[in-house]
Write a structure and sequence with these properties.
The protein has about 300 residues and is of the alpha/beta class. It is built from seven helices and 14 strands. The chain has one domain. Strands 1, 2, 3, 5, 6, 7, 9, 12, 13 and 14 form a ten-stranded mixed beta sheet that branches. A four-stranded mixed beta sheet has the order 8-4-10-11, with no helix packed on it. A hairpin with a 5-residue loop joins β2 and β3. The longest helix has 25 residues. The radius of gyration is 21 Å and the shape is globular.
């Protein structure tokens, strides 16, 4: 019995049972949100960052068929209940909820279409592009660029930053594969996909609201009465997740830094079905067009 208990501990520690449970949650609530499992444990490679790995889950919306949700499942286990809480700092002046989010848009067209049964055209006939764009996504939520995890090591990059960067890399790798899949289909002349990065965790997601002016300039501490902790179902984690200089022309360091910023949704497992149910996307410009539509004829 003891050997079995130890074996089970190793199984739970792997995180795979949690991933399967998240998958089952999506399947069992399908009638509520119309998202289905497109693929699972999907390999990806990002040549730009020279990284690779496996995506836990990719969801596809069965009505808005161009939507993909790229999910990383993160199970947290600890004997100390405090370690089961991810705390996001939200200064009082920045606590307004937002619809702003990041989306990787993948598009392509070809003028060379083979008939079914004929050889597939090579990539010279394709015009395709991947571009990150800020879009509006409902439901809205608070946004934070700082997350405090009790298990973070002060000498290394915080866990959530590492995890979010990996999710961004995986989204870009999947975007490249979307292009390859469509190029392999001789009778398909058009590609359009919108990819969204999401982290699903069993950790409680907490918001710490405070006024920075109340923080002691002497020791960096804050009186407990000057801060408010609340639990939320999900949050937008937004910051510069890449150290590479972004494409474009910039007048200031602030502009260059903002161009690097991307949003990753962080959601508690129990709130995932509701997030999927209420998910709606729209362009931020008045014309209602997405950036990908301005780069290629779609």
């Amino acid at each position: 019995m003891r050997n079995q208990d130890e074996t089970l501990k190793h199984i739970w520690k792997s995180g795979f049972p949690f991933q399967l449970r998240v998958e089952e949650e999506v399947r069992s609530t399908y009638s509520m949100h119309n998202w289905s499992i497109a693929t699972r444990v999907h390999p990806w490679t990002n040549k730009e960052t020279e990284s690779s790995g496996f995506i836990d889950l990719v969801l596809q919306h069965d009505h808005f068929v161009t939507y993909r949700m790229v999910i990383e499942c993160k199970r947290v286990k600890a004997d100390d209940q405090r370690q089961l809480r991810w705390i996001f700092l939200v200064p009082e002046e920045g606590e307004k909820e937002t619809q702003l989010a990041s989306c990787l848009e993948v598009g392509g067209t070809t003028t060379r279409i083979a008939q079914i049964g004929e050889s597939v055209p090579d990539d010279k006939g394709w015009n395709y592009v991947q571009i990150w764009e800020n879009v509006n996504i409902l439901p809205q939520s608070l946004e934070s660029s700082i997350c405090v995890l009790p298990s973070d090591d002060s000498k290394s990059q915080p866990i959530l930053e590492r995890l979010a960067s990996q999710v961004i890399d995986s989204v870009e790798g999947l975007g490249t594969e979307e292009i390859l899949v469509h190029r392999s289909q001789s009778h398909v002349a058009r590609l359009l996909a919108f990819l969204f990065p999401v982290i699903v965790t069993n950790a409680e997601i907490s918001i710490c609201r405070f006024n920075p002016s109340k923080v002691s300039i002497l020791d960096g501490t804050l009186n407990s009465s000057a801060a408010t902790l609340t639990t939320v179902p999900f949050i937008r984690f937004r910051k510069s997740l890449s150290t590479a200089f972004p494409e474009g022309t910039f007048s200031t360091l602030k502009e260059a830094n903002q161009a690097r910023e991307l949003t990753v949704f962080v959601v508690n497992t129990s709130s995932l079905p509701l997030l999927l149910k209420d998910w709606k996307m729209s362009a931020r410009n008045f014309g209602g067009r997405f950036a990908i539509q301005n780069h290629i004829s779609l």
